[in-house]
Amino acid sequence: MVAVAACLAVMTATTAVFQNEVQAAIEQIRYSLSVALGKDMSSYSEVVHTSVSNAGYTITLEEVIAAEEELIVSYMIQSENGDKTVPENTITGKLSVNGKQAALSAGSSGGYLDRERKQYGCQVSYQIPDVDLSGKNKFELEFTDHEQVLKGNWKIQFEASGSELFLKTKEMEVGVSYTLPDKNRLILDALSFNDLAQRVTFHTTKKGLKQDIELRAQDDQGTTIRFSMTEMGNGKGVFENSFVIEDGAPVRNWIAEDAKTLTITVYQNGFSESDEDVWQQVGDALTLDLTKLKKREKKK
User: Fold this and answer.
1) Nearest 10 degrees: Cα torsion 128, 106, 80, 117
2) Alpha-carbon distance 43 to 29, whole Å?
3) What is the Cα–Cα distance from 239 to 222, expressed in whole angstroms?
4) Which residues contact 42 (CB under 8 A, 6 or more apart)?
5) pTM for the full model?
6) Which of 3, 183, 187, 293 has the fewest Cβ atoms nearer than 10 Å?
7) How far apart are CA 244 and CA 37, in angstroms?
8) Residue 23: what pLDDT?
9) Closest CA to 193 of 256, 112, 280, 273
10) Strand arrangement, sheet containing 154-161
11) What percent of the chain has pLDDT over 90?
């Protein structure tokens, strides 16, 4: 449920981007993950640009980015002869790594690239918690229409390495525990930085959470960051600096490069007596010394 909520949040943000950007900028999603992610990732993305056609439609896998426990891809779906519309959000890809199905969850965003709705661009983030992606791996995406409107099957194989992002990742242990109202304990494990995302990993003493949790943070340079829960399973999860809607527009803030401290406050989503959606602070604020961030060590 958390993965679905995160997916919907990203889709909402991306929809707002599509509505506010000119058509020329929208079309770049076919080629650039930088447009889809809202940040220049050209140093880490690998261009695949491989197409496969079936059942009257062509899927082109454009770019991929491999990171620790995550693979991000961008692809375009279009009518093979340019005479059919493309179904919205029905064609999805099942991911395999080194011959084994690996992705536990995925979040996506996308939109039509033309007024005739014959071209559709999509960006998908696959969470892969049990595979070392810091080196080169072999991947396969098998696309199908989950609504079975299109009877086609599209498979694309490719290789990708997360070594570039791995070398640029810094992390530090946190190890701070919070007791939630239902007596479940939330433990913030580590904070990690790279150019793709800023993340806080965590685990709980009970499997699952009754309410959504988010981290609200501010660095000593005055930057405000909201870490949303993007992954949760088997008592473990990830908070990530994600897109949020502010004044009707999607915003994704990043901790300043020269920041020395980061103050984090945990909030739990609940409901008031009038059933209004409210966020309540859990425990005391935590201040981290960012000078303790160090280069990540390779998994053994």
Assistant:
1) -160
2) 16
3) 20
4) 32, 34
5) 0.73
6) 183
7) 13
8) 39
9) 256
10) 100-101, 91-97, 136-145, 154-161
11) 39
